[in-house]
C-alpha cells in the first residue's frame, strides 16, 4: 500500500500545481482585459467630449460678462468694479505672449478712479465723518478723472462737490464735471509747494467750509486750528463741520444736530490710504481670479500711486515672483526713483521752480513727489520704463486700427510698457502680462486725440512706432 500512498500524494501535488498555474493565467488575463477595457473607455470618453465640444461651440460663444438670474444692482455704485479682463489680440499675437487689459473704462464714471472715489467716500461714512443728504460737500484736487468719479458717486449718495484742477487739462473733463453738477475751479499748474497749487487749494477750501466767505484769499495760509475741524482716519484728510456743539455731547438732540450738519470733506487721493485699499481689496483680487493665478507680470503707471501699489502688493502676496513694472511719461520723476534711487536732480526739485514739472500730453499719470501711496509701491517695483509722448500717441492709433480699442493716454502708455517689458525679458512662450486700461479716448478729444493740437506741440503721430517696437529684437536674441 505504500506505493499507492506515494502515487496519491504525487497526483494531488500535480493537480494543485496545475490549478495554481491555471489560476495565475486567469488572473493575468483578467488584469490584461481590465487594462484594455480601461484604455478603451477613456478613449471613448475623450472622443465623445471632443465631438460634443465641436457641436456645442458654435452655439455657445464665451461671454465677457455673465448675467445671473435675479441679480439687480443697487444704483450706480453697484456698477463699480468687477470689470472684464480682455486679451489685446494684436499685441499678444505679435509678441507670442498674452497681453491682458483690465477694462476699467467700463466703470460708470468711465475710469479706474471710480474704485478710489467710492472707497474714500465709503470709508469716510463708516468713520462717521460724512453723512449723505446733509448738504455736505466733497473737495478734491485732481487732473480730472478722480473728480468725475467723485462727482458721479456724490450725486448718487447725496453730496455736493468742488473740484480744483489745472487749467491745461482736456476740456472734455471739465464739461463732464459741469454736467454732473460739480463746482469747478481751474488754476494754473504749479508745484506742490505753491499755496495756489490745485491740491493745496482743495484742502484749504475744505478747511474754510461753512464760513461766510468761503473763497480763500490768494495769499492766505491753511488753517489747521479751524475750530470745527474733525479728527479723521488719515492725517491728510480734512473734515470740517458748521455745527457749534461738540461731538462728545451727551444730549441726544444736540448730537443728532451735530451729525446732521453739513460737512466739508477733503478726500486727498494722493495721500489717502483708501486709495491703496480700493485696489488691494478690489482690483488686485479680481485680476488674480480672472487669470486663475497664472500671471507673470503687472504693468501700471502712477499718478497718485494707489493702483500700482494696491494691485502690485496684492499680487505679490499671492505669488512672490510676479514682476511689478512702472511706466512713466515724460517729465515725471518716478522712473529715476526706481532706476537710480533719486526722484530728480536737486536743480529739478519742486519748490525751486515755478512751472509745471510733468510736461507731457499724457494725463493721469506722472508725478514729481513721493506720496504715501507711491511709497507703498516702491518696495515691490522691479522694472520701470520711460514712455515718450510719441510712443503713447502711436499706441493709441495702433489699437484703434488693429483692435478697435479707443483708449486714453495713460492706457496707451501702459501697453507700450508691456511691450518693452516683454522684449527686455525675452518672453515669447505664452507668458501673461496684465495692465490697466484706465479710461477711453472720449475724454481726450481736445488734446491727445487732436492731431492739430499735437502738431502745435511738435508731437509726432507716426503709428509705425509701435510696429517698429514690436519688430525690434530682444536683448536675449543677440
Task: Give an overview in words.
It contains 15 helices and twelve strands. It starts with a helix and ends in a 7-residue tail after the last helix. Helices cover 43% and strands 13% of the residues. Helix 3 packs across helix 8 and helix 12 crosses helix 13. Strand 3, helix 4 and strand 4 (160-166) form a beta-alpha-beta unit. The longest helix has 55 residues, at 2-56. Mean pLDDT is 83; it is low at 52-60, 212-227 and 350-357. It is globular and about 110 Å long. By secondary structure, it is of the alpha/beta class.
What are its keywords?
globular; six-stranded mixed sheet; PALP-domain-containing protein; 12 strands; 478 residues; alpha/beta; single chain; 15 helices
Beta-strand share of residues: 5-15%
Number of separate strands: 12
The value of Rg in angstroms is 32 Å
Given helix and strand content, the structural type is alpha/beta
Average predicted local confidence, pLDDT? 83
Order of adjacent strands in the largest pleated sheet: 1-2-12-9-10-11
Helix content: 40-55%
The main pleated sheet reads as: 6 strands, mixed
The helix count comes to 15
Euclidean distance between termini CA atoms: 96 Å
Q: Any idea what the shape is?
A: globular
What's the SSE pattern?
Answer: HEHEHEHEHEHEEHEHEHEHHEHHEHH
Low-confidence parts lasting 5 or more residues at pLDDT below 50? Answer: 52-60, 212-227, 350-357
Protein name: PALP-domain-containing protein
Organism: Pluteus cervinus
Amino acid at each position: 500500500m505504500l506505493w499507492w500512498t506515494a502515487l496519491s500524494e504525487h497526483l494531488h501535488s500535480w493537480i494543485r500545481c496545475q490549478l495554481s498555474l491555471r489560476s495565475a493565467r486567469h488572473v493575468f488575463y483578467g488584469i490584461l482585459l481590465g487594462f484594455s477595457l480601461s484604455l478603451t473607455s477613456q478613449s471613448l470618453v475623450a472622443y465623445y467630449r471632443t465631438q460634443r465640444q465641436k457641436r456645442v461651440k458654435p452655439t455657445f460663444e464665451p461671454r465677457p460678462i455673465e448675467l445671473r438670474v435675479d441679480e439687480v444692482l443697487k444704483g450706480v455704485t453697484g456698477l463699480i468694479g468687477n470689470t472684464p479682463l480682455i486679451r489685446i489680440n494684436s499685441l499678444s499675437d505679435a509678441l507670442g505672449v498674452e497681453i491682458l487689459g483690465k477694462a476699467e473704462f467700463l466703470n460708470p464714471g468711465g475710469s479706474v478712479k471710480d474704485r478710489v472715489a467710492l472707497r474714500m467716500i465709503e470709508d469716510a461714512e463708516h468713520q462717521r465723518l460724512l453723512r449723505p443728504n446733509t448738504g455736505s460737500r466733497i473737495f478734491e484736487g485732481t487732473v480730472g478723472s478722480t473728480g468725475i468719479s467723485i462727482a458721479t458717486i456724490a450725486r448718487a449718495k447725496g453730496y455736493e462737490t468742488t473740484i480744483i484742477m489745472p487749467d491745461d487739462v482736456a476740456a472734455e473733463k471739465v464739461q463732464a464735471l459741469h454736467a454732473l453738477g460739480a463746482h469747478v475751479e481751474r488754476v494754473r499748474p504749479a508745484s506742490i509747494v505753491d499755496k495756489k497749487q490745485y491740491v493745496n487749494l482743495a484742502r484749504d477750501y475744505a478747511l474754510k467750509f461753512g464760513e461766510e466767505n468761503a473763497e480763500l484769499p490768494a495769499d492766505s495760509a491753511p488753517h489747521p486750528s479751524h475750530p470745527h475741524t474733525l479728527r479723521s482716519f488719515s492725517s491728510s484728510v480734512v473734515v470740517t463741520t458748521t455745527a457749534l456743539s461738540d461731538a462728545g455731547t451727551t444730549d441726544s438732540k444736540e448730537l443728532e444736530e451735530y451729525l446732521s450738519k453739513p460737512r466739508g470733506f477733503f478726500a486727498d487721493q494722493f495721500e489717502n490710504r483708501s486709495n491703496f485699499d480700493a485696489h488691494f481689496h478690489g482690483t488686485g483680487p479680481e485680476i488674480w481670479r480672472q487669470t486663475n493665478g497664472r500671471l507673470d507680470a503687472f504693468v501700471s503707471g502712477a499718478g497718485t500711486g494707489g493702483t500700482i501699489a494696491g494691485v502690485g502688493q496684492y499680487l505679490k502676496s499671492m505669488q512672490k515672483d510676479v514682476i511689478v513694472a512702472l511706466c512713466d511719461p515724460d517729465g515725471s520723476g518716478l522712473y529715476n526713483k526706481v532706476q537710480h534711487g533719486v526722484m530728480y536732480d536737486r536743480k529739478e526739485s519742486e519748490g525751486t521752480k515755478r512751472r509745471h514739472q510733468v510736461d507731457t500730453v499724457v494725463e493721469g499719470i506722472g508725478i514729481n513727489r513721493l506720496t504715501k501711496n507711491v511709497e507703498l509701491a516702491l518696495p515691490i517695483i522691479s522694472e520701470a520704463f520711460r514712455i515718450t509722448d510719441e510712443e503713447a500717441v502711436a499706441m493709441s492709433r495702433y489699437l484703434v486700427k488693429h483692435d478697435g480699442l479707443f483708449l486714453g493716454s495713460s492706457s496707451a502708455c501702459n501697453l507700450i510698457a508691456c511691450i518693452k517689458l516683454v522684449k527686455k525679458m525675452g518672453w515669447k512662450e505664452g507668458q501673461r502680462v496684465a495692465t490697466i486700461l484706465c479710461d477711453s479716448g472720449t475724454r481726450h478729444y481736445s488734446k491727445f486725440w487732436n492731431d492739430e493740437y499735437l502738431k502745435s506741440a511738435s508731437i509726432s503721430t507716426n503709428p509705425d512706432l509701435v510696429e517698429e517696437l514690436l519688430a525690434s529684437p530682444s536683448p536675449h536674441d543677440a
